[in-house]
Design the sequence.
């Protein structure tokens, strides 16, 4: 199981994505082939927990994405405590994931 942060922007914002990579010192940019967009992805667990999450704790997210961030942090904490290695923990993580982003009601 892998925890991934992903931010998608229009292709015209490629410089913004590169500046995020430079600022955080982690992550990679991926150009989408089917649309004019780029993804910024961070998948290294230590980068997520030591760089990205503290940044968003300091600079609060506003709106519905704040709820997604809280769920993301909950999953990161579960994984840090090795819950993802048990069937119960994995089920809990899947339940949280399914309620994020477009799955939020």
Sequence:
């Amino acid at each position: 199981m892998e925890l991934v942060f992903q931010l998608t922007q229009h292709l015209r914002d490629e410089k913004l994505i590169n500046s995020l990579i430079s600022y955080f010192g982690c992550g990679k940019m991926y150009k989408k082939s089917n649309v004019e967009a780029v993804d910024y992805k961070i998948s290294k667990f230590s980068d997520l927990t030591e760089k990205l999450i503290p940044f968003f704790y300091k600079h609060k997210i506003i709106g519905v994405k704040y709820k997604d961030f809280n769920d993301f942090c909950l999953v990161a904490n579960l994984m840090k405590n090795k819950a993802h290695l048990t069937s119960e923990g994995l089920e809990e993580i899947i339940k949280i994931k399914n309620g994020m982003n477009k799955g939020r009601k």
